[in-house]
Structures are given as structure tokens and as C-alpha cells.
């Protein structure tokens, strides 16, 4: 006779240990991306403030096109240093150098390049306030592309939370109906709305595709960053060269005026933009696009609140309502389901209550 009770309890013990270790690992990763997402919110919020402070009498003394280029170079240098440190460890960092894999990394830069041109085209048809409000469409389009291309399933509550986030950010940006800009929201030509929708889709597509690249294999995050930022620096340098040709080299080649007009605040803008990009790549690797969308949306609201104290920005009822709706959305998306709805409690079987079932050992006769 073989009692199964002891074997069953040992098996359950091993399963419980493995499950506990897995839960601890997931909790550690979650704590890390909570921290990274919070830091991203602060840096993204300070980006607009620093950019405003870098102006002199409402104008830039430096060529603003050099800022993204230097930010890409900064991200490339930081990622290269961390990759070099990883390669010295044992085992070394995993790096896929096959051309079929490397050739995918210029695509996000190409999408962002097209997106920037669509942005300028959109602003030809709509005013700045309307463009900002239409930009919130990228919150919903990110969720849609997240579901279609990455096959990530979202619950009904999470879909409601994403829509609420878009509504909340839009509400915070809508001005009082007594102002002229309120009428301009629905008076733009149809081309402006179509380009605005295209801009939102391109922004979401670039983010979702970047997440796909970061998660398609187990390559080192820093190796993937090196590839992304190398092409990013190349495309931004190409833009500077193109600006030179358009201007007939009146101000000289771009490398001779690269740091013209730079101040301490301008360098803070560069470092802030570069650090933000590094945090976004980490979230793409270990979290997802939705976390990034929430971080940047909360950053926008934080910027508005800080502007009240820094730039004498007058708070509106719409701003307070938008903040409340966005906080509700944040809770709905990330809170455990049992905190949002009443779920039936599950009964866990006590190992002590297991029945000791004897089994005959069969022997060959």
C-alpha cells in the first residue's frame, strides 16, 4: 500500500514555493515600473516648463532642431556605456546582429519623421488648442493598436478607463465657452480633422511598433537602444542637413552652429529629453504602451498645475474636472478587479483536508 497523502503535500509545497517566488518576482518588476512611470511623469512634465524657460523674450536663441539630435546622441552614449558594462559580465549580454533583425529598427524613426510632417500639415488647418485636443485621440488609438497588433487583451473596465483618460485630458484642455477658441474647435475644415486623426494613429503606431521591437526577443535592452538611437541620430542629423539646404547655408553648416545660443537651461532641456527617452524604452521593454500613455497624460495635467504657480496660469473648472476624471481612470485601469467590483470569493482547499487514498502496488506475477 502506498499512501499518496505525503507525496501530494510535498507536491503542493513545491507548487506553493514556486508560485510565491513568481509572485515576488512580478511584484518587484511592478514596483520598478511604478517608479519608472512616476519618474517619467515628472520628467515629461518638466520638459515643457524647461523649454519655456529656455526662451529669451519669447524666442529661441538656439536652433531648436539641434535639441532632438543632441538628445539622441546622449541616449546613444548612455546606452553604449551600459552595454559595454553588460558585455564585461558573465554571461555577456545577448545581441542579435542578424541584418533581418537590425533592419527593423529604423522604422520607428521613419514613422516619427512622417508624424512630424503630418503635425505641421495639421496646424495649417486647425489652431493650436484644437490640435492639442485632437492629440488626445492617440490615447484611444494606442489602445486599439495595442489590441490589434500586440494581441494584448484588455478587459471592459480597462477599455472604459482608456476612454475616460481621453475624456479627462480633453476636458482639462477645453477653455470656457465664452472664449473665441471654443467656437474654433468645430469650425476647422475637414482636412484638419482627417490629418489630426492620422497624426494620432501615427503616434500610436510608432509606440506600439517600438514595443514590438523591444519584446520580440530577449536581446539586451541596451543593445536594442543602441540600434534605435543610432538610427534616430542619423535621421535627426539628416533633418539638420536638409534645413541647411533649404536655408541656402545662410547661417553656415549645422555643425558650426550646433551649440550656438545654448545656456544651462538649454542643456537641461537636452538632458531631460534624453532621459525621458531612456525611461520610455525601459517601459516598452518591461511594461507596455498603456503605462507610457498614462504617464504622459498625467504629466500634461501636472504641467498645467505647476504652470499655475510658475507662469500665473489661471486654473479653470475644466482643469479640476479633468484631473478628477483622469484619477478615476488611473484607478480603474490599474486597480485589482476585486477593488472595483464585487467578485465571489474563491475557496482554497486545505491540504490537511485531503483524503488519504490507499493505492495497491501491482507486482508482476
TrEMBL record:
<feature type="transmembrane region" description="Helical">
    <location>
        <begin position="131"/>
        <end position="150"/>
    </location>
</feature>
<feature type="transmembrane region" description="Helical">
    <location>
        <begin position="104"/>
        <end position="125"/>
    </location>
</feature>
<dbReference type="GO" id="GO:0000139">
    <property type="term" value="C:Golgi membrane"/>
</dbReference>
<feature type="transmembrane region" description="Helical">
    <location>
        <begin position="291"/>
        <end position="311"/>
    </location>
</feature>
<dbReference type="Pfam" id="PF04142">
    <property type="entry name" value="Nuc_sug_transp"/>
</dbReference>
<keyword id="KW-1133">Transmembrane helix</keyword>
<keyword id="KW-0812">Transmembrane</keyword>
<dbReference type="InterPro" id="IPR007271">
    <property type="entry name" value="Nuc_sug_transpt"/>
</dbReference>
<dbReference type="InterPro" id="IPR037185">
    <property type="entry name" value="EmrE-like"/>
</dbReference>
<feature type="transmembrane region" description="Helical">
    <location>
        <begin position="194"/>
        <end position="214"/>
    </location>
</feature>
<feature type="transmembrane region" description="Helical">
    <location>
        <begin position="317"/>
        <end position="335"/>
    </location>
</feature>
<feature type="transmembrane region" description="Helical">
    <location>
        <begin position="226"/>
        <end position="242"/>
    </location>
</feature>
<protein>
    <submittedName>
        <fullName>CMP-sialic acid transporter 1</fullName>
    </submittedName>
</protein>
<feature type="transmembrane region" description="Helical">
    <location>
        <begin position="262"/>
        <end position="284"/>
    </location>
</feature>
<keyword id="KW-0472">Membrane</keyword>
<comment type="similarity">
    <text>Belongs to the nucleotide-sugar transporter family. CMP-Sialate:CMP antiporter (TC 2.A.7.12) subfamily.</text>
</comment>
<feature type="transmembrane region" description="Helical">
    <location>
        <begin position="33"/>
        <end position="53"/>
    </location>
</feature>
<dbReference type="GO" id="GO:0015165">
    <property type="term" value="F:pyrimidine nucleotide-sugar transmembrane transporter activity"/>
</dbReference>
<feature type="transmembrane region" description="Helical">
    <location>
        <begin position="65"/>
        <end position="84"/>
    </location>
</feature>
<feature type="transmembrane region" description="Helical">
    <location>
        <begin position="157"/>
        <end position="174"/>
    </location>
</feature>
Amino acid at each position: 500500500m502506498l499512501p499518496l497523502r505525503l507525496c501530494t503535500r510535498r507536491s503542493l509545497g513545491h507548487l506553493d514555493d514556486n508560485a510565491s517566488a513568481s509572485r515576488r518576482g512580478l511584484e518587484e518588476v511592478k514596483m520598478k515600473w511604478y517608479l519608472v512611470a512616476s519618474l517619467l511623469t515628472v520628467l515629461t512634465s518638466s520638459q515643457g516648463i524647461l523649454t519655456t524657460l529656455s526662451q529669451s523674450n519669447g524666442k529661441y536663441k538656439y536652433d531648436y532642431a539641434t535639441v532632438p539630435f543632441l538628445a539622441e546622441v546622449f541616449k546613444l552614449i548612455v546606452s553604449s556605456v551600459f552595454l559595454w558594462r553588460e558585455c564585461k559580465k558573465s554571461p555577456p549580454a545577448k545581441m542579435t546582429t542578424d541584418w533581418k533583425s537590425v533592419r527593423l529598427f529604423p522604422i520607428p524613426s521613419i514613422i516619427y519623421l512622417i508624424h512630424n510632417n503630418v503635425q505641421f500639415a495639421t496646424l495649417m488647418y486647425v489652431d493650436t488648442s484644437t490640435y492639442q485636443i485632437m492629440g488626445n485621440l492617440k490615447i484611444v488609438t494606442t489602445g486599439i493598436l495595442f489590441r490589434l497588433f500586440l494581441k494584448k487583451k484588455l478587459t471592459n473596465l480597462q477599455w472604459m478607463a482608456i476612454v475616460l483618460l481621453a475624456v479627462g485630458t480633453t476636458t482639462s484642455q477645453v477653455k470656457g465657452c465664452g472664449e473665441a477658441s471654443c467656437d474654433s474647435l468645430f469650425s476647422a475644415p475637414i482636412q484638419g480633422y482627417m490629418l489630426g486623426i492620422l497624426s494620432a494613429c501615427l503616434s500610436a503606431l510608432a509606440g506600439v511598433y517600438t514595443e514590438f521591437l523591444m519584446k520580440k526577443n530577449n536581446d539586451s535592452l541596451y543593445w536594442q537602444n543602441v540600434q534605435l538611437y543610432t538610427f534616430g541620430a542619423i535621421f535627426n542629423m539628416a533633418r539638420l542637413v536638409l534645413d541647411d539646404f533649404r536655408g541656402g547655408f545662410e547661417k553656415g553648416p549645422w555643425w558650426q552652429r550646433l551649440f550656438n545660443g545654448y545656456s544651462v537651461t538649454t542643456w537641461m532641456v537636452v538632458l531631460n529629453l534624453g532621459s525621458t527617452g531612456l525611461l520610455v524604452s525601459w517601459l516598452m521593454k518591461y511594461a507596455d504602451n498603456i503605462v507610457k500613455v498614462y504617464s504622459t497624460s498625467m504629466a500634461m495635467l501636472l504641467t498645467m498645475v505647476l504652470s499655475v504657480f510658475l507662469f500665473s496660469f489661471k486654473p479653470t473648472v475644466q482643469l479640476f474636472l479633468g484631473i478628477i476624471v483622469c484619477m478615476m481612470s488611473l484607478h480603474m485601469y490599474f486597480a485589482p478587479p476585486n477593488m472595483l467590483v464585487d467578485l465571489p470569493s474563491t475557496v482554497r482547499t486545505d491540504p490537511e483536508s485531503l483524503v488519504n487514498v490507499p493505492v495497491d502496488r501491482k507486482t508482476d506475477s
